[in-house]
Design a protein that fits this description.
Number of domains: 2
CATH architecture of the largest domain: Orthogonal Bundle
Helix content: 25-40%
Shape: globular
Low-confidence stretches: none
Mean pLDDT: 95
Number of helices: 5
CATH class of the largest domain: Mainly Alpha
Strand order of the largest sheet: 1-2-3-4
Structural class: alpha/beta
CATH superfamily of the largest domain: Winged helix-like DNA-binding domain superfamily/Winged helix DNA-binding domain
DNA sequence: AACGTACACTTAT
DNA sequence: ATAAGTGTACGTT
């Protein structure tokens, strides 16, 4: 199937997406736009809707290394919640550092919600800029709050 | 095939 | 604040 590409806005950033059918190949934050539209899930998500990308699959979860398991575990972290690198490490029997490395190399952010994985004592990094991570976490919290007050 | 290095972490000084 | 422990991938012999 043909690989499609496009971008949508998230604040000051653009979210570039490459996909074919239900398979997401690559997602990337950039300062400049890429021509073309993105699957509706992405525009919904960027508009602050609760979106789990459930009808999509990421190439990342089928990596043959332990990274594949890490990505799978991260995918299960619900919208609006966070977990630490160490906690993810526990579920797949590796170290927090390795989880950090897997997050750094995550080919499909948002689909694999690596922004929900934070350090125990600090927010942790994000490529290309940790501001994005903060904004995403904040946005999800606000959406959650709006949905179920109290 | 082996080795060295780079890390989006964590825990103990 | 800083160092030691950590597990994996990846590039370089």
């Amino acid at each position: 199937m043909e690989v499609m590409s496009g971008s949508c806005r998230f604040g000051l950033w653009f979210v570039h997406v490459w996909w074919s059918g239900a398979m997401i190949h690559h997602v990337l934050f950039s300062k400049s736009p890429l021509p073309g539209a993105v699957p509706p899930s992405f525009t919904r998500y960027c508009a602050g809707k609760e979106e789990r990308f459930q009808s999509y699959e990421s190439v990342a979860t089928s990596y043959p290394t332990i990274y594949g398991q890490i990505y799978q575990a991260v995918r299960n972290v619900p919208y609006g919640e966070t977990e630490t690198y160490g906690e993810i490490a526990g579920t797949v029997s590796t170290s927090a550092r390795v989880v950090g490395q897997a997050m750094r190399r995550n080919p499909t952010p948002l689909v694999i919600p690596c922004h929900r994985i934070v350090g125990k004592h600090h927010i942790g990094g994000f490529t290309p800029s940790p501001e994005i991570k903060e904004a995403l976490i904040l946005m999800e919290k606000k959406t959650r709050k709006r949905k179920q007050p109290g």
